[in-house]
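Forwarding the complex inputs:
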Amino acid sequence: MINVGIIGAGRIGQVHMKSIMTGVPQAKVLAVADPYMKPEVAAWLENAGVEKITKDYREILDDPRIDAVLICASTDQHAPLSIEAIRAGKHVFCEKPVDHSLERIEEVKAALEASPKKIKYQVGFNRRFDHNYRAIRKAVEDGKIGKVEFIRISSRDPEPPSPAYVAVSGGIFLDMMIHDLDMLRYLSGDEVEEVTAYGANLVDPEIGKAGDVDTVVISAKLKSGALAAIDGCRKAVYGYDQRGEVFGSKGCITSSNDAANNTVLSTADGIISEKPLWFFLERYMGAYQEEIRSFIDCIVNDTEPEAGIEAGLISVKLAIACKKSMDEHRAVRIDEIK
Amino acid sequence: MINVGIIGAGRIGQVHMKSIMTGVPQAKVLAVADPYMKPEVAAWLENAGVEKITKDYREILDDPRIDAVLICASTDQHAPLSIEAIRAGKHVFCEKPVDHSLERIEEVKAALEASPKKIKYQVGFNRRFDHNYRAIRKAVEDGKIGKVEFIRISSRDPEPPSPAYVAVSGGIFLDMMIHDLDMLRYLSGDEVEEVTAYGANLVDPEIGKAGDVDTVVISAKLKSGALAAIDGCRKAVYGYDQRGEVFGSKGCITSSNDAANNTVLSTADGIISEKPLWFFLERYMGAYQEEIRSFIDCIVNDTEPEAGIEAGLISVKLAIACKKSMDEHRAVRIDEIK
Amino acid sequence: MINVGIIGAGRIGQVHMKSIMTGVPQAKVLAVADPYMKPEVAAWLENAGVEKITKDYREILDDPRIDAVLICASTDQHAPLSIEAIRAGKHVFCEKPVDHSLERIEEVKAALEASPKKIKYQVGFNRRFDHNYRAIRKAVEDGKIGKVEFIRISSRDPEPPSPAYVAVSGGIFLDMMIHDLDMLRYLSGDEVEEVTAYGANLVDPEIGKAGDVDTVVISAKLKSGALAAIDGCRKAVYGYDQRGEVFGSKGCITSSNDAANNTVLSTADGIISEKPLWFFLERYMGAYQEEIRSFIDCIVNDTEPEAGIEAGLISVKLAIACKKSMDEHRAVRIDEIK
Amino acid sequence: MINVGIIGAGRIGQVHMKSIMTGVPQAKVLAVADPYMKPEVAAWLENAGVEKITKDYREILDDPRIDAVLICASTDQHAPLSIEAIRAGKHVFCEKPVDHSLERIEEVKAALEASPKKIKYQVGFNRRFDHNYRAIRKAVEDGKIGKVEFIRISSRDPEPPSPAYVAVSGGIFLDMMIHDLDMLRYLSGDEVEEVTAYGANLVDPEIGKAGDVDTVVISAKLKSGALAAIDGCRKAVYGYDQRGEVFGSKGCITSSNDAANNTVLSTADGIISEKPLWFFLERYMGAYQEEIRSFIDCIVNDTEPEAGIEAGLISVKLAIACKKSMDEHRAVRIDEIK
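Prediction (whole assembly, four chains):
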């Protein structure tokens, strides 16, 4: 039995809590820390048998019974909490991105390398655990499509975040497209060599005023020579649009969106099927559960996490390169980004 | 908090146990009874915090703390256990069918009517809680397709049961098609007036030797005048095929199968998508959880179960009428069946 | 070059005229006869190079240059014109049904047998030449689905005919379902042994007053033991609904409707695709061309038409058996129908 | 009646000949010229009633009865023949591209402007007449998706041309992607401001030796601010992959491929549907007919061709800009291309 502490009891912290309760029998949440915990959340945790409910995350790091911590605090806390947790000898699951700054991610990496204990460190790239993306990945790995020649990812949120959020988000590449940049590596099994990005402010002028764009297209060249295109938008009125495609010498595999049900209504107005599941909590609920199950499995079976500190580091490099390409209006090689 | 006892710790009893553990926070399984409980099941239940693990279901019925029982024993035990549980003042969730004999179902009904306490009695027609069938039902109720004119249900299992099972199953109509006959009522919101059934032994000669058929088509006339067709087969090599369609004056709503993922692989051999989920445990896992959640809600909020003793009784009448039609080679009115 | 005469210059006669002009280079329409030919049709035919445009079909039958006639007159004229044409030594393509009376079809058959010249006689079962139905048939023939166990056909017109037409149509089974009954034989490659039919008057009370029904379901048992279900309706508000399915020991093949284009529109209201092509002229235009091309090929290459007098005869028997089953409220064996 | 002369009796010239014969009643092919005409083609044309079959295109341009010419010769002949035909006062339908050189297209444009007679000049961008692309365009024009924000086009041929063809093709952008670049303008109703292109030689090393690439991705910024991505490949083993998508503030419209039929085969190996139609002659046969019908309509009704000399000019500019971007490894503004 792996004893878990959760730092941060907001939306995503609660999701992980539920995943462990309902789907990870080898783990038990012993403690949850959040300085601003809502009373109803505290009540729910207590009722669910969480032993220690606290404002102070140090009570988790100092508890020798706790094997692993889930870092679900705000992004600026990810790196320092990671480092503290690593130094406390805890296995760490950290929400993405590890940080907006490469230097700070390198510090986490250094802490991992310096740790006398072999720490499992997993970054919250939930899409790697999604049924559709995993099926694409498996088909690619199994050689079903031959040599990879082109990868396409479409990624559209149903509604934009508030301008206030946008202002502190690090920008669309670090905040939103980072998932898709990680998917590009995951689906292709390859590394990105160069990117070119275009951005536009089409959805909401407030996003532009906050210094960001809301619609982007990224084209990329991978190490193997394969090409790629990613398009992203902060708002798709029909719901969360999450599709991938990998094309190769022997075929092509494509995923379409998931809907709440598989019914089709035929009327005089047209043939109407269900819209995609609304947003990430609906769409990726299974993936959230699966990533935590996988993290605990890594600890139990002493295997490597699927998305470790390197994935966390490279994805941020890619996002920074995209931003640089858009700003400087030129192709940017990833090895330019230090 | 509703305290629950489960009678029968086989496959379906375990499914309901898990549903309550992971998805029904208002209920708690206090006791599980099974005279032939496997040691590993007992260990799992104990670990999950089940207080009383016993061979004797009477320990459940006699426990005044227990509010509701789930009857997951073999079919021949459904009716007598239902009656005992009702007399003990417990709310009852009973797996389908309540019994193969109308008389014995009537006895359960009489027990319910005689009970001084208002008992909630729900029959395990899980498909009423399936996302696809519910979406069809909702569209019909919302008038999206106008007046119902025709209903079609296709129901194919991926693999036939053993001839030994077939011999005691009550026959394909009572064992398998009963779900689809209940769906006919559920999707249409109407009652069946008359049925004609054809059966054939095409899948496995052993099923024929056991006195049963494995492939059937049922046509029906409903009270409203609408017509219906149901086809069933014990074996579809591509997996569990579960589709419904309701056609009416303003349109048509159709459900297709669920698959493990929404990917499509295009190769020189064709455009290939995933097969349906393999069988009922995969396909209806969500529905199993939902039916138990709904049962507990009925108790908590004092509402009527969606599928009560009447649904249990009528579905058996319909199955008997189908059998009679096939055997006597003629249309059979449901009011012939007493 | 096969010289063709067309008897009847209504809608379907014009369709066949166009098919020959644009897609059957081995044939040439030499003459068209219609006692009520519209002036604009006559002008079009003249412009298209038709040599003889006449009120009197005898001018076609008497013309020794003419090899083949297409009988596109009203149904009551099909049999007598067929016999006259056969006696005149012409190959005959006759619109369906050959007649509503078995006796008169037998007379046509007798004329064919009595003819000193080997006459090619094809009945206008256009769906046998449709790309979707042909693909199903081919998969069945190629053994892709193994031994046939169940066939389903859904057949819904977009709008009902006028009550005046219904009154002289011979009823829904002979007028509309005859196509589907022929499809049942074509798709299965089997013969029907017994049918049970239900009918209802749900679409338009005027159809009921004209003595007909507008919604039917037919269940059937085939010689091989396979079962079948056909549903039909005179009105589907979303357009012409024409789907088939053959299920067997190794799989299942299903056809869906054709639409004017393959686009999907995703909006806040839902995911909307195109409705089926509106009616038979849109849906089966390719099949109409293909059946004439095939008829001419039979003459040129001296092969047997795919749908000859026997198909014409059996389909009428099946329609009569369905009507009898509905009227007498019982299963009807096809060998009862003489 | 519009009298037509066809210059070039190769594959595409024959396609246009058939379109006029079978689907454009207002036009008649009076003459066909080709210095290398195959005897069987000449025989077919003669049989089809073409009056003048010649080696010398001047016999067409000099014939005062001829209203319009279709230029189906090799690409290097497009511009000079266009200019001669314009000077001869003929309406011109010219296969794409008008030329690989902007100067020569400008010369054609100048000839058009200098012509005393108002000449209809249409470039063979057949996809503008395809049912799927037209449906997308119409949805965009009708405001169904709101303001355009992103366009995506996937364009993959089933098999690469020979290296010999590649060597004289002008390169993938001018030879193949020019269609997609034109589609970008057509679907969006907008102009391209800037492109960035990546190319790779992944399909066939011989193509690389011939100095070309076979796999490309183009990203673009449009005048309105909308973004776009086009991917292209010379070889998709599953057939001709031609899909478009336009995303906007109110929704998204997507087209999928056409197949030979709409059947789905379900077996133990998977759920298998038909591959896309093999290549452009199968996929765009309807569009080829429609473009000629539309060209003749423009002459008859004195309206503007949908794709005139300007579309021909701009598409070549776009292709040149893509090539320049790939070669110089930078974003290229279209107004750089003179």
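The interface with chain A takes residues 21-23, 131-132, 134-136, 139, 144-145, 250-258, 260-268, 274 of chain B (CB under 8 Å).
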